[in-house]
Each structure stands twice: as structure tokens, then as C-alpha cells.
Write a sequence for this structure.
């Protein structure tokens, strides 16, 4: 029997969606250049003059804290001749070449080509040897804007802000009910204790699909299922994600033992003090919330078969001040679980590269994974 033609199970996206350069290019234009996506933590640019340079599927973006303390973002492109204003992290400039541009503290950014200078809000401040009287108006040459919103200490960007505003596609609308479900967690107060960057040899959608189901947990995550036995019961098909997932008796969090000496966040309800919650915020933020820490995963697609995953481990500053603060019990546990996931995602990517693989199937307990299919197809048409 040909399961592809006769199975009652729902089909996944066609295999080409996980390996095609053409599909990857469409996803850039119709998802990452149109939708709100998570870009950073607000604490990364905490002081006026702080600047981040990000690469978003080939588009270079500057995110800055202005003199007034606001966050602004714009394309890393000079309005004069198109020079890149600031180098990206890891970009190597020959040691014998000096570029006379860059960040001027909280006073702005100077282009290294012709010394045009912009404020951190993106407005043109100075263009050497030009005069307003000659018909040149500085107000017409602000940097190309990028939309910015902040929620829960996370910075979200939108690369087509005018179109997005015109169509009414707000950040809140993109979240659905997620903001309400996590409203008692003090996400904006938390701080990053450690960041781990993983290079995953898999398409970004495979990682989201994996996060969105626990059918795999019993076989892939024995240590996790020891702490959270519900993950392996009925193939993860009876989990109450909105209420949260219960730990084993006596356990309250994701550590090797399921226990911790850290205080639970104030304001949580009784379920949230002992259960684990997970949220997938399309297109690239995964939140795993325990009673006293949060693991936040930001996905950065690099190629059809390669994704960088940034994992920030967030704790409350009051706990971080304590002399016995030792977050390694949670971080070490998460690192193992993460690497187990990345390895199995790699193997899925290897499989969908095969000439015989046309599409996969979703088992009944994987219904949530269908959301990725709907989300992508609605936008790629």
C-alpha cells in the first residue's frame, strides 16, 4: 500500500520546502521581510549609544538605543551611495586599512565612504559640502526604517514597516493568545545569565515542527521524560499546553532533579508554580517557561539546510544577586536536551534530501505541527 496516497494522516509540507533555495528565498521575502520577528533582548542595548548589527537572511540591520533612551532600527545602508555603515559581527577588516566611520557614541553613526553622519534615530545630521540652499533637504535622506516593538524584554523587528502598518499587522495580532497565556511571567524583568549559540544542520521549519510536538520525546529525551513523565505518555498526545505540563512528584522545574533552590517568580498562579509552559511565537521565537527560569530560543535561518539557534537562559535579577546562585543545574540540563533535538533535526534534514521523499506525515498527536504548514502556506500562497 502506498501510504502517501491512502493514509488518513495529514501530509507535511512537500520535501522541497525544506531543501529548496527558491522556497528559502520566498520565505525571506514573504515571511522574514514582512512579518514581525524576534531579533534580540532589550538588555543587549541597555544604554544610549548602544548598537547592534544583525544579519536577517542577508539583510543587514542596525538596532540602536537613542540619546532619549528609545530603540530605533534601520537598514545598514547609507542613503548617499549605498555603502554599508557598520561592519557585521565577525567581519574582518584588513589591519592596514582604517575606515573613518562607525558609531560616534550617542551622537550618531558616520558612513566610512563620504562621512555622511546620521543620528541614532536614523535622521541625517550632516552631509559634508552640501547646503540646504542648493535644494538639498536633509529630512529627505533619513536611513531606511525598520519597524520596532518591544514585548517582555524582547525586541521585535519588521523590515517593511509602512506596508505592515497599512495592513494593520500588529505585533499583538501576530502573537494570537500567547501574550495572555504568559502574562504572569516577568519576562521584561529577567536577565540573560548565559547565551549558547547552536549551529543546527536543519531547515528552520523542521526545528519548529520538532518543538511543537512531543511524539519524539520518549525516544529522544530520556532525561527530560524522567523529570516530566507526561511527555512520553500516549506519545505526548494528551498534554495540556495551555494549563502547563506537570512534572514528576516533587519536581517543579527543568533541572537534573526537577528541583531548585531558586524562588518561583512572584505572581504566578498555582499551576505555573509547578508546571512547565511552552510557546511558539511565529516565525522564530520559542519560549520554554519554568517557575524560576525561562529558556528563550531565537531562530536565524542561514540556508535551506542550516539554522543558527540562539538560546538565552533568563533568570530573575534578585536571584542572580544571591551568593548561592548557581544556574548550571538548569543550563546543563537544557544544553543536553537541546543537543538531542538538534541531532534528530539534522537526521530529518538528511532524510528529506532523499530523492524518494516527497512529503512526510503528521500522526494524530502531532496536530500542533500542522500550524507550521498552515503558517507557511498562507504566506507563500
Amino acid at each position: 500500500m502506498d501510504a502517501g496516497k491512502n493514509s488518513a494522516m495529514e501530509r507535511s509540507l512537500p520535501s522541497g520546502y525544506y531543501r529548496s533555495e527558491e522556497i528559502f528565498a520566498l520565505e525571506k521575502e514573504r515571511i522574514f521581510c514582512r512579518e514581525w520577528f524576534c531579533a534580540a533582548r532589550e538588555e543587549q542595548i541597555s544604554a544610549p549609544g548602544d548598537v547592534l548589527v544583525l544579519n536577517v537572511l542577508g539583510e543587514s540591520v542596525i538596532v540602536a538605543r537613542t540619546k532619549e533612551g528609545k530603540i530605533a532600527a534601520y537598514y545598514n545602508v547609507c542613503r548617499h551611495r549605498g555603502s554599508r555603515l557598520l561592519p557585521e559581527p565577525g567581519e574582518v577588516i584588513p589591519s592596514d586599512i582604517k575606515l573613518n566611520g562607525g558609531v560616534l557614541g550617542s551622537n550618531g553613526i558616520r558612513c566610512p565612504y563620504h562621512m555622511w553622519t546620521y543620528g541614532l534615530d536614523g535622521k541625517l545630521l550632516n552631509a559634508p559640502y552640501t547646503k540646504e540652499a542648493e535644494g538639498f533637504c536633509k529630512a529627505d535622506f533619513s536611513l531606511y526604517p525598520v519597524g520596532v516593538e518591544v514585548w517582555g524584554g524582547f525586541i521585535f523587528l519588521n523590515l517593511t514597516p509602512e506596508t505592515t502598518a497599512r495592513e494593520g499587522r500588529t505585533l499583538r495580532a501576530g502573537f494570537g493568545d500567547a501574550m495572555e497565556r504568559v502574562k504572569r511571567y516577568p519576562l521584561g524583568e529577567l536577565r540573560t545569565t548565559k547565551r549558547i549559540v547552536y549551529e543546527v544542520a536543519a531547515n528552520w521549519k523542521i526545528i519548529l515542527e520538532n518543538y511543537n510536538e512531543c511524539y519524539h520525546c520518549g525516544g529522544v529525551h530520556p532525561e527530560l521524560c524522567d523529570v516530566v513523565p507526561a511527555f512520553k505518555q500516549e506519545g505526548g498526545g494528551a498534554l495540556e499546553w495551555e494549563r502547563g505540563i506537570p512534572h514528576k512528584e516533587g519536581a517543579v522545574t527543568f533541572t537534573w532533579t526537577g528541583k531548585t533552590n531558586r524562588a518561583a517568580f512572584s505572581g504566578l498562579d498555582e499551576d505555573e508554580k509547578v508546571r512547565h509552559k511552552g510557546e511558539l511565537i511565529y516565525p522564530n521565537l520559542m519560549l520554554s517557561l519554568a517557575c524560576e527560569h525561562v529558556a528563550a530560543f531565537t531562530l536565524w535561518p542561514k540556508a535551506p539546510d542550516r539554522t543558527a539557534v540562539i538560546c538565552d537562559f533568563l533568570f530573575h535579577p534578585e536571584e542572580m544577586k544571591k551568593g548561592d546562585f548557581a544556574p548550571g543545574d538548569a543550563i546543563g540540563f537544557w544544553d543536553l536536551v537541546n543537543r538531542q533535538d538538534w541531532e534528530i533535526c539534522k537526521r530529518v534534514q538528511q532524510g528529506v534530501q532523499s530523492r524518494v521523499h516527497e512529503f512526510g506525515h503528521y500522526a494524530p498527536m502531532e496536530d500542533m505541527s500542522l500550524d507550521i504548514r498552515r503558517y507557511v502556506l498562507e504566506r507563500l500562497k
In short: The mean pLDDT is 93. Residues 328-352 form the longest helix (25 residues).
